[in-house]
Design goal:
single chain, 2 domains, alpha+beta, two-stranded antiparallel sheet
Length: 333
Amino acid sequence: MLINKAILHVLDFNTNVCILSQKELDFSSDVVYEYVDKRINKIRHDASQQTGAFYATSQFQPLVQNLAAGSLKFDEFAASAARSLFDILSHCDVPESVDALVVDFQDDDDVRWLGILMLDNKTAYTHQILDDDGAIYNKLIQHQAILPGAAQKAEAYALINCRDFSVRFVDKKRQMDGQDIYILPDKLLQCTAVISSKDAVKMVTKIAAKVAEDHGGSTVEALSKTKQYLVENAETADSFSPQNLGAGVFADSPQMQEEFESQVREAQMPADVSIEKEYARKTGKNHKIKTDTGIEITFPSEYIENTDYIQIINNPDGTISIELKNICKITNK
């Protein structure tokens, strides 16, 4: 990744002033570059991102297109985005002060991206060292505008692909005229919003467990197969089909397949959901279960269909037994 330019604008609702920087951030400072670099890297592969496309009527997309075409300068684009954000936030029931960090960068495939990060100002305390006629003393003071640390993920941001003009974003609810709204997709970008891979995975696993339970099947088996499908699918694709997932998980039961597909449609899930490969692998690698007796077991999801390693047995009295097999060594942790 290569960061080309970045600029920081202050949207201060304590004084009701939008302070637009007339200079870009100085990357000759290692501290500045490290902060921006860590912030962008933190969000690039965020599984919480929703994806979207600009509406035909979006007033923001022409700004991006003009910047990409070279007819609009970066500082002009950033200032316009910050002014729009300030105007939108000013209409919220409780406007919150933020710093708008606008970044122009190239990814590892040399695709140009624009990042707009809304960094919430936090109130924090620090010390101040004073000298009173040669007597050194320390004072506790309050600072009203502390930015999030470099390791913290921005609570609201947008990433715009300058090649295909696709959008990725994370936002939080705000109140405007008593209604819940999302500033970035609804007001600033004016784009569609597709469920994030993180929420999609949560939803399909919840549906799979419910379908299995309602039909007297094993929820452990259903969830393990769901995770196994995500891992195997990630090897060849950067998205997954909820319908195909259900067909794979409930391959032995057409009735459960149909019920799964019905609930997926009811949840209005898209036909394909983008998912980061690393997130899919991390989420699907292991499955963890906890019994009502307090025992916890974590095992590779793929083992659920391999009775050489683990077998879950439904006893005649309604209890469940778990048998672990072919163990050569046990390590205490």
